[in-house]
Amino acid sequence: MARRSDERTIQQAPSRRRHPVRGPSTPAARRAIELFDNAPRGDRFHVRARWWTCPLPAVERAVPAKGRILEVGAGHGLLSFFLALSSRDRDVTGIDIDVHKIALADHAATRLAPNEATIAFAVVEPGAMPDGPFDGIVINDVLYLLGDDQRRKVLADCIERLAPGGVLVVKELDVTPRWKYEIGRLQEIVATRVLSYTQGDRVEIAPMREFVDQLEAAGLATTSARVDRGYLHPHQLVVGRR
Questions:
Q1: Closest CA to 121 of 59, 48, 35, 62
Q2: Which residues are paired to 90 by β-bridges?
Q3: What is the enclosing helix (H) or strand (E) of 7?
Q4: For the domain 26-241, what is the CATH code?
Q5: What DSSP state is assigned to residue 126?
Q6: Sorting pLDDT into bands at 50, 70 and 90, what band is 221?
Q7: Using CA of residue 207, residue 80, residue 70, residue 196, what is the dihedral sign?
Q8: What percent of the chain has pLDDT over 70?
Q9: In 114-209, beta strands by DSSP E
Q10: How far apart (Å, rounded) are the C-alpha atoms in residues 221 and 216?
């Protein structure tokens, strides 16, 4: 049985010991990736690369194990599927401005068995967000594509839509260590400006402290951790609870 996120403590990951990145070791993870087997080759590659380069299991553990869950900037839906398949008590909605990626997610959803997961996707206008309240809201590698004002507005809108006891999970890139920051920044510049696979015209990676300060100023209790051990990118995780 999946444990509720409020029973877990997010620990600061050791930074010096080597820790190999693990593949999709759970049935939910393997199933989430399998749903994209019929996707175009480039999208299949992106989904698999996403799993290997992003600590999605750490994100999943921070999300409430039941209730209404919203993923903001769901893209192709890999994390949304992983959340829904990891706990049948989650009702997951993934939103994004990218029509192609949401179409890919919708197609993957048609491969789910009846009652296998409760999940839906929607294309939204930039800045739009469905009405709450939500028991959990997840933002995974989205805020670095926004300017400072827009980034703060998205976080404020998410906080406003949290149910009492609701949890906001923010997984973004950090600015340290510097060598990981440069790798992550270069990759995202290629994705946005060269390949145009990710929608956005800027890459502004903010320090983890910025997110902590905004969540705490809004009255949320926060925990934060680096979750980049074994990864080339400087992943940070900030969790705020109303």
A1: 35
A2: 67
A3: none
A4: 3.40.50.150
A5: T
A6: very high
A7: positive
A8: 79
A9: 118-123, 134-140, 162-173
A10: 6
Residues 6 or more apart whose Cβ sits within 8 Å of residue 179: none
Asked whether residue 9 carries a pLDDT value surpassing 90, the answer given is no
Dihedral in degrees, nearest 10, Cα atoms 54, 55, 61, 63: -30
Are 91 and 67 in contact by the 8 Å Cβ rule? The answer is: yes
Element (H, E) at 202: none
Band (pLDDT 50/70/90 cuts) for residue 177 is low
pLDDT tens figures, 103-130: 999 999 999 999 999 999 999 999 899 9
Residue with tokens 């893209």: 75
- Per-residue pLDDT at 175 exceeds 90: no
Per-residue pLDDT, averaged over 58-85, amounts to 97
Residue type at position 1: M
Q: What is the DSSP letter of 115?
A: T
Q: How many whole angstroms separate alpha carbon 81 and alpha carbon 110?
A: 12
- The two three-digit tokens of residue 176, written as one number: 């340290």
What Å distances lie between residue 185 and 78, 178, 200, CA to CA?
A: 22, 10, 13
CA distance 237 to 242: 17
**Domain spans in the chain, listed from the N-terminal domain onward:** 26-241
**How many angstroms separate the Cα of 52 from the Cα of each of 29, 91, 153, 230, 231?**
11, 25, 30, 10, 8
Measured CA distances, 8 to 58, 59, 89, 144 (Å): 11, 12, 18, 27
